[in-house]
Design a protein that fits this description.
Shape of chain B: elongated
Radius of gyration of chain B: 37 Å
CATH topology of the largest domain in chain B: FAD/NAD(P)-binding domain
Number of domains of chain B: 6
Structural class of chain A: mainly beta
Helix content of chain B: 10-25%
CATH topology of chain A: Folate-binding fold
Oligomer: heterodimer
Bound molecules: zinc ion
Strand content of chain A: 25-35%
CATH architecture of the largest domain in chain B: 3-Layer(bba) Sandwich
């Protein structure tokens, strides 16, 4: 069970959180202008990397704030936690 | 009767005899015994029958890896199946019986399975029981279940208490053997917070059995003193009888502490029987020791064949001889230590058979000095005796074949050692990398994730001095890391140097030269031949072989047989062990009671129960409750001896004919406030919200981005910047989360906030043609006419002297009002409405009547008519869907798939027989004659008897249903009396009652 560093509360048990899937999927400004494929990609398609990933978490049983984590999906190492809207940090091993 | 109590020795208290029963017979042991040691001392040999072949089996080990001595412990509510006798501390009055002995321990018909054994090879359950049709359920499965035994679950509630504790530490040490104690001592000396968990009643591990000295003290005394000193430190928690079940990420560990299991059932009232520890440690040192490996030869499962280390443990720790004339068989040095211990305890071994051509010089001299013959370069080829060993045959070993003449050794105990497997299970759970250790012919940990360390035998270090040094170093590293300093202090503990090991001879059974079964997994009756067969049949992955043969799938989870399985598979496929690898290690390390995992979360504390402010009134009215999410809602209010159908019919008639009242307090309620509130809500609902005027309400539906209906409810505009949103009873939290998610992550620029107010309000719904008359008595000065108080409006008023929000909304199609008051006034308002309505026969109604009434009007229910695959269009709401604004999910409604005209659409169904009730969930087909397979065109979502319609009806989702009004579909149903039948029904418009809506204004 993970120990998740909420940017507002500090490290808390995973059971207090809900995972919100891949981060930085912006809702299209004008959905009606999108092709079927573009809309389907936005609604349904997500990366599922074996390795580092930026993902959304919700501190549901804590401060009730959303934030983003950089987590390794195999080792569960957590490299960064940052609020929504903050620029995504580089993944470990990636050039900044 | 071959095992017996030695005249002296062991850590048992011979002044405290304890009576117990096994298999209905009175027995006696001593305080300090385990059930297993007491049974051996009592001369009990056969403790169970094997799973498949029903071969007699005896106690095989002295630890958690025990495959054979599974017992049913205790009686009545305390009865517990499949407990390993090696793990049970003896107490006075203990009752145990073997679990797998159908029909009895001494005579079992299952033994004929030995002659059926050609049918019971690897994967037999995939091969043997294929036909005739229907035989599996009627014949094979009941017979297999009866013969397989495996204990009985108690059929009464568990009377014991269990609890959970949470602890944070700098270091968790798993195991209090020499390595674990050295690690904990080094770390604790530096002042960091340490948790030391050990599964034994006393610390020491192997020291409890060994004759070694540490720092000039006997090992067991050193262990006891070290553990006591640690326990006295304020920052150290020493947990005995505590098994770590699993290691998880970020230093999380789960352990179970057995607090009262060594006392008679019920002897410790008010004390938790077991406690689950949740440890969060910055670092973890695994010093879990090792498990001895059996040797593979024909008859290696006979009662009297045991692990050599276990034989030594029983002699030294419990003062019990497992036999009178032991033969030791080994491929490594450790059996010499055991043989010497037995000889010194007064049980001189007949011989020690060493598979290696050259035995270890010093150890063999020590044994020879005690008059024990050493037969080097030999291997057992047969075991004599069925229910107990009478002798073994040995021959010279040449590779994996035998040569030379047979020699018979008369003996009643065969103590075997095939080497030692580091207990890497916990490390494996955390994805530690394992490597094949050629010298010890086993897997040992090589790469460890951050924060995890291993010490002692679990890491492949087997000498005592090595274990202490490794433990000390690991403890020093952990404390240095915790304090942010480097450097190790030297090891203070010293143990005498031991003779250098003579290399082990890896041995995985003979390829020829012996007959009979050689068992890899004693519990699941998996033989060496089964593994070879699986390999021949094309199973090359060790994970597949495990599942196909069931090797390692018993309660011991392969602690004894897994490495042997890997070796046999590797040999069959001629590939290196490391390439075959191990199966995946998963928690729990040992079986754990559900009661312990549940802890205090049982009974009323299983899940929070939510009740409305009016709940006591419903209890007083003898309501039957149903669970809606966590809420208790009145399902119906039976009068006299009414059954549900009659009560619901009466309640429905009251609403349609006069007036009814319902507690609607459970509906989710959210206040959305801020200058951007209207803009915010407009993005969620499929229909326009921003255009709502203050004082008006509007029914709204929300979708997810995939266009599927997510929740619905009524939105009221309290002020230009303030909305009151209701949700479904079960959807309140989901909707609030949904608002928060979009606001925080996508639209943070909107000035708005959302607050749950579900519990702040109590709501009484008053529905029916006389509802206006009831309200008029409660607020005589108000004009409640349809003209003055229009449908879908609300106002803040005073009702029966209480401040209230009164809304004209209806979920039944009748004239209806909802009165909402502050929660604390809920009961008073309920009483006032009941009193005011008495002259009109006002009738409380429950959720079932509410469902019937709404379904008669074709109103869908989220969760009944929707299941996450239904769009607003499918529900017939296309006129509600806003054209000019965007909302969540809108673009999805024009995807090819969602825009199809032949999607399942909401319609009503009228069974041709007006008395037949369709089953909710029933599939619908187009043909009257049942055949399989046949295309399914839809399904029933709600089905009721309607008093107003005078017949049964249903709502259904049917492919292209709206274009099929008047057509007939069929529901294949099964009825207890009639068996399989086809019920025909006609598709109808969904609004069956008052389609013009005339009743809405009264
Ligand atoms: Zn937080």
């Amino acid at each position: 069970m993970l120990l998740i560093p909420c940017p507002w509360c500090g490290r808390r048990e995973e059971t207090e959180f809900a995972n919100g899937g891949e981060a930085h999927i912006a809702r299209p400004a004008d959905p009606a202008a999108l092709s079927q494929e573009e809309w389907a990609a936005y609604v349904f398609l997500r990366d599922n990397p074996k390795g580092w990933m930026r993902e959304r978490w919700f501190h549901a049983h804590g401060c009730r704030r959303w934030f983003n984590l950089v987590r390794h999906t195999v080792t569960h190492e957590i490299a960064a936690a940052y609020p929504p809207g903050a620029p995504p940090p580089p993944l470990p091993g990636e050039a900044a | 009767m071959t095992g017996y109590r030695l005249p002296a020795g062991g850590a048992v208290d011979r002044t405290r005899p304890l009576g117990f029963t096994f298999d209905g017979r009175d027995r006696s042991g001593f305080a300090g015994d385990t059930l297993a040691s007491a049974l051996i001392a009592a001369g009990v040999r056969v403790v169970g029958r094997s799973f498949k072949y029903h071969r007699p089996r005896g106690i095989y080990s002295a630890g958690p890896e025990e495959p054979s001595a599974l017992v049913q412990l205790g009686r009545g509510p305390w009865s517990e199946p499949n407990v390993r006798a090696t793990q049970v501390d003896l107490y006075a009055g203990l009752e145990a019986s073997p679990v797998n002995v159908w029909p009895s321990l001494r005579f079992d018909a299952g033994a004929i399975n030995q002659f059926l054994s050609p049918l019971l090879v690897a994967g037999f359950y995939y091969k043997t029981f294929l036909g005739p049709r229907g035989w599996w359920r009627r014949v094979y499965e009941p017979a297999i279940r009866r013969m397989a035994g495996m204990g009985k679950a108690p059929d009464e509630p568990d009377p014991d208490l269990y609890d959970h504790a949470h602890v944070h530490a700098d270091l968790l040490v798993v195991g209090a053997g020499p390595a674990g104690l050295a690690a904990a001592r080094a770390a604790a000396a530096a002042g960091i917070r340490v948790v030391l968990a050990d599964d034994g009643a006393q610390a020491g591990g192997d020291l409890l059995t060994s004759s070694a000295t540490i720092e000039g003290r006997p090992g067991a005394a050193w262990a006891a003193e070290t553990a006591a000193a640690l326990g006295a430190m304020s920052d150290v928690t020493v947990l005995s009888r505590t098994t770590v079940l699993g290691l998880y990420d970020h230093g999380y560990a789960v352990a179970v502490e057995r607090r009262t299991d060594h006392r008679p059932p019920g002897a410790c009232p008010g004390h938790a029987r077991q406690r689950v520890w949740h440890v969060r440690a910055a670092r973890t040192i695994v010093a879990a020791g090792s498990h001895e490996r059996p040797l593979l030869f024909a008859g290696n499962d006979r009662p009297g064949v045991m692990l050599s280390g276990a034989v030594r443990t029983y002699a030294r720790r419990f003062g019990v001889a497992c036999g009178r004339s032991p033969v030791f068989v080994t491929n490594n040095d450790s059996a010499y230590v055991a043989a010497i211990a037995l000889a010194d305890a007064g049980v001189p071994p007949v011989a020690l058979v060493d598979l290696r051509p050259v035995p270890p010089p010093a150890a063999s001299k020590a044994l020879a000095d005690r008059g024990v013959e050493i037969l080097a370069g030999r291997v057992p080829v047969a075991v004599h005796g069925r229910a107990g060993v009478r002798g073994i045959d040995v021959r010279a070993l040449d590779g994996d074949r035998t040569t030379g003449s047979l020699r018979r050794l008369e003996c009643d105990l065969v103590a075997v050692s095939g080497g030692w497997n580091p207990a890497v299970h916990l490390l494996g759970q955390l994805r530690a990398g394992l490597t094949w250790d050629e010298a010890h012919a086993t897997f040992r940990p090589e790469t460890l994730p951050a924060g995890l360390a291993v010490a002692g035998a679990a890491g492949g270090t087997f000498s005592l001095a090595g274990c202490i040094a490794a433990g000390h170093a690991a403890g020093e590293d952990a404390s240095a890391a915790a304090r942010g300093r480097g450097g190790r202090r030297p090891v203070p503990a010293t143990a005498p140097e031991e003779e250098a090991e003579t290399p082990l001879l890896p041995f995985w059974g003979l390829s020829q030269g012996s007959r009979g079964k050689a068992f890899v997994d004693l519990q699941n009756d998996v033989t060496a031949a089964d593994i070879a067969l699986a390999a021949r049949e094309g199973f090359h992955s060790v994970e597949h072989v495990k599942r196909y043969t069931t090797s390692g799938m018993g309660t011991d989870q392969g602690k004894l047989g897994n490495v042997t399985t890997v070796a046999l598979l590797s040999r069959a496929l001629a590939r290196p062990m490391g390439e075959t690898g191990t199966t995946t290690y998963r928690a729990p390390y040992v079986p754990v009671a559900y009661g312990a995992l549940a802890g205090r979360h049982v009974g009323a504390l299983f899940d929070p129960e939510r009740i409305t402010p009016i709940h006591a009134r419903h209890v007083a009215a003898h309501a039957v409750f149903e669970n809606v999410g966590q809420w208790k809602r009145p399902h119906y209010f039976p009068r006299n001896a009414e059954d549900m159908a009659r009560a619901v019919e009466r309640e429905c008639r009251a609403v349609r004919g006069a007036v009814g009242m319902m507690d609607a307090s459970t509906l989710g309620k959210i206040e959305v406030r801020g200058p951007d509130a209207a803009r915010f809500l407009d993005r969620f609902y499929v229909n326009p919200i921003a255009s709502l005027v203050v004082g008006a309400c509007r029914y709204g539906v929300m979708c997810r981005e995939d266009g599927m209906v997510f929740d619905d409810g009524v939105v009221m505009r309290l002020a230009p910047d303030r909305f009151f949103v209701t949700t479904t009873t079960g959807g309140a939290a989901r909707v609030l989360d949904w608002f928060e998610e979009w606001h925080q992550t996508e639209w943070p620029e909107l000035k708005v906030f959302s607050t749950s107010v579900t519990e702040q309000w109590a709501t009484v719904a008053v529905a029916g043609p006389r509802s206006r008359d009831v309200l008029a008595r409660l607020m005589p000065e108000a004009d409640l006419s349809a003209a003055a108080f229009a449908f879908m409006t609300f106002r803040d008023v005073t009702v029966a002297g209480m401040p209230a929000r009164l809304a004209r909304v209806s979920f039944s199609g009748e004239l209806a009002f909802e009165i909402s008051v502050e929660g604390t006034l809920g009961e008073a308002m309920w009483d006032a409405v009941a009193e005011a309505g008495a002259p009109f026969g006002i009738t409380p109604y429950g959720t079932e009547a509410m469902h019937v009434l709404r379904a008669e009007k074709g109103f869908f229910m989220v969760g009944h008519e929707t299941d996450g695959t239904v769009t607003p269009i499918d529900l017939g709401l296309e006129r509600m869907v806003a054209k000019r604004k965007d909302f969540l999910g809108k673009r999805s409604l024009s995807r090819d798939d969602t825009a199809r005209s032949d999607r399942k659409q909401l319609v009503a169904l009228l069974p041709d027989d007006p008395g037949t009730l369709l089953d909710e969930g029933a599939q619908l087909v187009d043909e009257a004659v049942l055949r399989t397979p046949m295309p399914m065109v839809g399904h029933v979502t709600s089905s009721y008897r309607s008093a107003a319609l005078g017949r049964t009806f249903a709502l259904a989702l049917i492919r292209n249903g709206r274009a099929r009004i008047g057509e007939r579909v069929y529901a294949p149903l099964v009825r207890p009396a009639a068996g399989e039948m086809m019920v025909s029904a006609v598709i109808a418009e969904p609004v069956l009652y008052d389609p013009s809506g005339a009743r809405r204004d009264g």
